[in-house]
Amino acid sequence: MANKFKVIFQPAGRRGEVEEGKTILEAAQMLGVDLEALCGNKKVCGKCKVRIEEGYFEKDNLESGMKHITPLAPTEDELKHIKPEDGPGIRLACACEIHGDLKIFVPERSRAGKQVVRKAAKELSIALDPAVKKYTLKFTPPTLHDMTTGDYERVIKALEEQYGLKGLQFDYMTLKRLQPALREGGWMATFTVWMDKEIIKVEPGSVDVCYGLAVDIGTTTCVGYLCDLSTGKVINTESMMNPQVPYGEDVMSRITYAMTNPEGLETMQKAIIAGLNEIIEKVVAEIQNEKCPKPGCTIDDLTIVFNTAMHHIFLGFDPEYIGKSPFIPAVQQSLNIKARDLGIKINPAAYIHVLPIEAGFVGADNVGVLIAQEQYYQDDMVLVIDVGTNGELLLGNKNRVCSTSCATGPAFEGAQIKFGMRAAPGAIEKVKIDPETKEPQYKVIGKADWHTHIDGKINAKGICGSGIIDVIAEMYKAGIIDKTGKFVMNLGTNRVRQDIDGKPEYVLAWAEETSINTDITVTQADVRALQLAKGALYTGAKLMMKKMGVTNLDRVELAGAFGSHIDREASLALGMFPDVPIEKVVVVGNAAGDGARMALLNKNKRTEAEERARWVEFVEIATDPSFEKEFMQAMHIPHMKDKFPNLKKNLEEQGAPIASSIKG
Hints:
Layout: E1 4-10, E2 14-19, H1 24-30, E3 49-52, E4 55-57, E5 62-64, E6 69-70, H2 76-79, E7 90-92, E8 97-98, E9 102-105, E10 132-138, H3 151-163, E11 169-170, H4 172-175, H5 178-184, E12 188-194, E13 198-204, E14 211-217, E15 221-228, E16 234-241, H6 251-260, H7 264-283, E17 299-306, H8 308-315, E18 335-338, H9 339-342, E19 351-354, H10 364-373, E20 382-387, E21 390-396, E22 401-407, E23 427-433, E24 440-444, E25 450-451, E26 462-463, H11 465-477, E27 496-498, E28 504-509, E29 520-523, H12 524-548, E30 555-560, H13 568-574, E31 585-589, H14 591-601, H15 604-615, E32 617-618, H16 627-634, H17 647-653, H18 658-661
Parallel strand pairs: 1-9, 11-13, 14-17, 17-19, 20-30, 22-32, 23-26, 30-31
Antiparallel strand pairs: 1-2, 3-7, 3-9, 4-5, 6-8, 10-12, 12-13, 14-15, 15-16, 18-19, 20-21, 21-22, 23-24, 24-25, 27-28, 28-29
Helix pairs in contact: 6-7, 10-14, 10-15, 11-13, 12-16, 14-15
């Protein structure tokens, strides 16, 4: 028998054992990884570029590197396509054979399946008052009699007299463009002013349109919203998987990577900045013009939100100190940083506005949620849950709002699930299971109808986050798993079986229905991963209610990566949050991104964010004496109210990694 090696593809998180001698492209196809291969393995299209990760990855117990592939160095065919700007470790998947364990990153450009934007923009009702505005001036050409007045002084005086802008300063790089711009425009020019303080762009002639970008960087996904600052409308939206995923699927893994690798922080910072620049390049493609041919130069303002770990890594702050008690961030207040200082490819003189952090692991993304949902103006007692790899919760009303954070893990995003994948064509996103026959129906992204096995080949590739929630909730309702999450065997159906290692699994799609030619299954480990994630959310909410003396909720608002795709009934069935009537569960989409857009469109929202970030009370749940007991009970499906002393023992016997997750 041929040797087999462990291969992990990121950011999809797909992994498996692959026979020695198979190409990386063959391994990708076998594991259901979306990888471009337009030329049919002829090594001529150059679309299947991947990055071979180097080093030992403790969490995966895997050592990866170029020494585990042949040929060791790129061939002539590969060198025709691999460019210096691609970065280190890039190879063509069709040209490399596997001869050892590998961790492989598939860049956004090499992925065949276009990600569905789960963080789509919704309409906002907000007064337009952006931080960046444009002012057009028409000057009388100077003569020899005007030699005592420079162009700088002429502009500053005109802006004060015509628009009431006092005390303006020029950005130095912008000032260098002033004289040619004035003359090129026939002594008419448009000046872009930031916060009524600084001139950050000068353009010849009259220019009306002004663009800004709001960015939400999540642990697993990133999204950018290009906005017309003169109308408030979203012009374009682009998203991608966070390119830091290869260095850790959750925030603690990335903090550990930064601490244990001398260049770890720099590597991850460069990865996320390169990713953001790729989003910028795509999002502005439709509005590029001859006057501004460089990608992103039409963007004059950028607001950004992320959790505390992503905040520190993006800004190059050592995340070590937020990774250990007492979890103190480098800076809590909002920041304004020149785009050129971070290498962000928009107007170099523009500012990146970083929203403030609340505390510890409650970051700027939660502040974005806060200013978007505005609990502090409401009478109702509202629980807002930002569902993602790092779950963040807000509980309260106009009198008091508390916040906390819990490490839910990447299961909600489809990662750490055997057949989990991002929300792309081919992903199963909705599931129903007949409680009598145990036969499933499912919907696949890119297909309009519900399907069953009798429909034949449907080209399913895997299961995305919303599909994971659906299928496990349906498995519970159909009696395939019990309240502890354990599989119920001998149900008289071949859908419930044991895998090659003797562990139970449920067959959601037979191999002949898929495009990966293997059965898509839900395993006991998948159920446990979701139990840990939903248990963390429920425990956080329960302990916050206890701290505030709240017994009943008026409303639950679901925000985050699932947006409008999360199924309310499934989330209630699983017990992701305290019980409320289903009509009181409201899906609000990407509230963190909404908050970033609000701060982009109205500068007063930036002040509001700063003030409310200090007003909100942070609750540390992991140190609560009742945390472990509550977490154990929250692992139950949906959850339990009575004491169950054997639950921890039962779960650990079934393979749930409670000890490592309990204080997440």
